[in-house]
Amino acid sequence: MSASESTDPTVAAAEAELARLRAEAEAAEAQLKAAQARAALAAAEAAAAQAKLGAPHPVAESEPVAEPVEASSGAADPSTSSGTAASSGTAASSGTAASSGTAASSATTAAAPPQAPTAPGEDGPLTADQVAAVVKGYTFESTTLDLGALVNGDPVAEAQIRIPLAMMNRHGLVAGATGTGKTRTLQGLAEQLAAKGVPVFAADIKGDLSGVATPGESSEKLLARTQAIGQGWQPAASVTEYFALGGIGKGIPVRATVSGFGPLLLSKVLGLNETQESSLGLVFHYADANGLALVDLSDLRAVLSWLTGDEGKAELKNLGGLSAATAGVILRELITFADQGADVFFGEPEFDVRDFLRTAADGRGVISLLEVPGVVDKPALFSTFLMYLLAELFEILPEVGDLDQPKLVFFFDEAHLLFRDASKDFLAAITQTVRLIRSKGVGVFFVTQTPKDVPSDVLAQLGSRVQHALRAFTPDDAKALRATVGTYPKSGYDLERVLQELGTGEAIVTVMSEKGAPTPVAWTRLRAPQGLMSPTPDPKIEAAIKASLLLAKYGTAIDRESAREILTAKMNAADEAEAAEQAALAKAKADAEFAKQQAAIDKAQAAADKKAQQEYDRLLKKTSGTSRTTRTTRSTQKSGIEQVLGSRTTQTILNGVIRGIFGTGRR
């Protein structure tokens, strides 16, 4: 090469570009060989462990057989880069690299057992570059939770799938068909969160989450699986508190007052339409304005009975917009609701949701499990009660912004029950709560069967997704599957096929990175929980409940004076006043009748007296033969005739005459 060529800028630029391409090719080839070696090492370790246990190398029955997929546009193929470098004058380097690659491949083949996994890109859906991109996408500087290992035909132990702990308050979704491992995913996340000092709340629908309180049991199958994904599994138990809605079950009772529950959530539970929902809101307003505490359902029924009764008709009219017919409908729904046993969920002492934010003495977060097997026939109440707890957290917690770790992670199991037949106002309230509670340091994970169970406005707030297998047995299922696939970022997977091929304990994962961007889509074999993957025995649960400090606080129900007692007293007072009024009316009527009868008696007496007087006067007139006189007309001055008649002689004569007439004289 001449001096002029060596100083030519064009030549210098070409040489620099050639050097850059050579370095990239060597780096890609080294990365490929390293990935191959690590995969082979993991498989060899698993095989060695199985050999020690005297068992054959495990092959999961549900493990999908992935076919090679062409690399996405723009992805670099290491072999192509090497070929380009060789054609650009680097034959010696390429030859050396090729020899090294061949030797490495031979060594790998010799060291690996017969069932060793193939290299990434050879029998898996992802190329080596795509695997490298996944590894880079899930490498974080901050504290993380480990979800599992990448699956590319076989697990790639060095490709660990993680989620930053700080992103757990950006919410998430765990979805999948029944039996695909959602509960175990929830358990694994809860255990890791608690171990890092984050309190956890979860509803235990089937009762098998209680196993977090008991160390897990080892088995050959479990160890083979965990070793294959690079998990150093050890049995461990988490600090656990058990709760039960209204005391139905073994846990510490969790109750709410009707006032605290509110008209919006109660309308959802009762299945009221929008008109009835607004009317119920007026009833709550009336109770609040008149100092009527709504503690349990009997209080609300008492208010409605008062407003629809004679005593409250005027007050019902003043409310405006509340008809007696609508109030009657609400009252009937409440009676039916209470007859189903739902009244036990409402009362005092009302649960303070801050008791979910506790940590143990050793710094671990407490896992609060809400036992709900006893209310499985009341799904609407169960799901709405969970929403009430979440709304209470939003109400009482201060704004904290973005934290290094959340204050609480709330797992909302069977989330589809919450959104079924929900009104627009209710959905708006849920969306607002989910959107804003992040700044309170609370993360919410919805657990359900398909993403379509969660409204799109709520899904839009979720940062992390763990999607287990979906089934497509009907046209509606197939449509839902395609809709789910359409919500994922572009990846090297045929997701419509992969989502149906996922084995139990496998999922398609994408989370929110530390920068707030979604990570690459990763087919993941999830880690096994360290706690028992079956329910904790009842005696241990009962012992834990008796030892809880919260039992003294919430164990005994309280019945204080509330709307029912106040309105009953009012109605009793009204009844007493009415009784007194009726008694007064009866007395007045009796007095009037007595006066009437007395007047009649007096009149009859006067008539009798008059008649007797007349008879006396007649006799007197007849015997005297004189003109008629009466006592009332006699003068105080006696006349001559009176003097004669009154004389003793005249009296003697008259007596003789009378005795002669009546025969009383002596013969």
UniProtKB/TrEMBL annotation:
Biased composition (Low complexity): 34-121, 623-636
InterPro entries: HerA_C, P-loop_NTPase, T4SS_component
Annotated spans, Disordered: 34-125, 618-642
Residue ranges occupied by any Helicase HerA-like C-terminal domain in the UniProt entry: 155-638
Name this polypeptide is given: Helicase HerA-like C-terminal domain-containing protein
Organism: Microbacterium pumilum
